[in-house]
Amino acid sequence: MTDDTSIPTTATDVPPDRLSATPGTPYYDEATLSRGIGIRFNGTERTTVEEYCVSEGWVRLTVGNSRDRRGNPITIKQQGVVEPWFKDIA
């Protein structure tokens, strides 16, 4: 990963430590999600992330198109290195 010093980094340019894409959870933030969040998990960009936590080092990934009885996507939790970034500044 290269360090690009030409992009100014402010407090608003740093994604939150924990974020969820599921409305109704305490970590859901529509304003942050509307900016577009990219997630690199263990060196690979992932597009099926439902929730992540950088400090604890885990992501919740959706499993295909499977849904539970409430209509929520079925997820699995995996441990590893989580690197979020805002897509509008990348």
Can you walk through the features of this model?
- The chain has 90 residues and is mainly β.
- The protein has one domain (15-86).
- It contains one helix and seven strands; from the N terminus they run βαββββββ.
- It has one helix spanning 30-35, and strands spanning 18-20, 37-41, 44-46, 49-53, 58-67, 73-79, 82-86.
- The strands form two sheets. A four-stranded antiparallel β-sheet has the order 1-4-5-6, with no helix packed on it. A three-stranded antiparallel β-sheet has the order 3-2-7.
- β2 and β3 (44-46) form a beta hairpin.
- The longest helix has 6 residues, at 30-35.
- The radius of gyration is 14 Å and the shape is globular.
- The chain starts with 17 loop residues before the first strand and ends with a strand.
- 9% of the residues are buried.
- Mean pLDDT is 88; it is low at 1-9.
Quick recap:
The chain has 1 helix and 7 strands; from the N terminus they run E-H-E-E-E-E-E-E.
Summary tags:
three-stranded antiparallel β-sheet, disordered N terminus, four-stranded antiparallel β-sheet, globular, 1 helix, 7 strands, mainly beta, 90 residues
